[in-house]
Amino acid sequence: MAAPMQSLASGTAVISNKCGVPVFVTSVDSTVGATTQLTAGATWTEALHYDPKAGIAIKVTTSEDGLYNGSPTLTLGYTLNNGENSVYYDLSSAFGLDPLFAANKLTLATSKASCPSATWDHVTSVPIQNSKACIGDSIDVVLTLCA
């Protein structure tokens, strides 16, 4: 299997866990990656990459097997567009919203201040998905849990 392609708009996807408990992170493109426990106060990163078969979905759950048992799953989704030298990104949740995330603030931002961000602040239901776009090289997309 070929390695994922880097992009002109390469940067890093970052999950920052400021919650007081561990969460579990799994990167999914056309294949499912390994699930990693992200302890309280820790940061998880991966290089932004392009998969010609699928967008990239970084799944966050509060249980180790949450991705496979129907638990609420928070998703940082992104795709790279080399033609525009841009990254498109959004925040969504499947199977409801985990109580941990509903009771706290979540922020999705980039390392480029002029790019749009999203904030879920003590939400009671999953907001409508709203994709953002950022143009430029080496842009980090950062999801902060319990901001």
Which keywords apply here?
147 residues; mainly beta; Thaumatin; five-stranded mixed beta sheet; 46% strand; globular
CATH topology: the name is Thaumatin
Structural class given helices, strands, pairing?
Answer: mainly beta
The SSE order reads EEEEEEEHEEEE
Inertia-based shape: globular
Strand order of the largest sheet: 3-2-5-6-7-10
Strand content: over 45%
Number of domains: 1
Number of helices: 1
CATH architecture: Sandwich
Q: Tell me the radius of gyration.
A: 14 Å
**The first-level CATH class name:** Mainly Beta
Specify the oligomeric state.
Answer: single chain
The profile of the biggest β sheet is: 6 strands, antiparallel
Give the termini distance in whole angstroms: 37 Å
Average residue pLDDT: 90
The CATH superfamily bears the name Thaumatin
Helix content: under 10%
The low-confidence runs, each spanning 5 or more residues with pLDDT under 50, are none
Task: Count all strands and give the number.
Answer: 11
What can you see in these coordinates?
By secondary structure, the chain is mainly β. It has a single domain, classed as Thaumatin, CATH 2.60.110. The chain is 3% helix and 46% strand. The protein is built from one helix and eleven strands, in the order βββββββαββββ. The chain is globular and about 40 Å long.
Please write out the topology.
Elements: E1 12-17, E2 23-28, E3 32-38, E4 43-47, E5 56-61, E6 73-81, E7 86-94, H1 99-102, E8 105-110, E9 118-121, E10 132-135, E11 141-145
Parallel strand pairs: 1-11
Antiparallel strand pairs: 1-4, 2-3, 2-5, 5-6, 6-7, 7-10, 8-9, 8-11
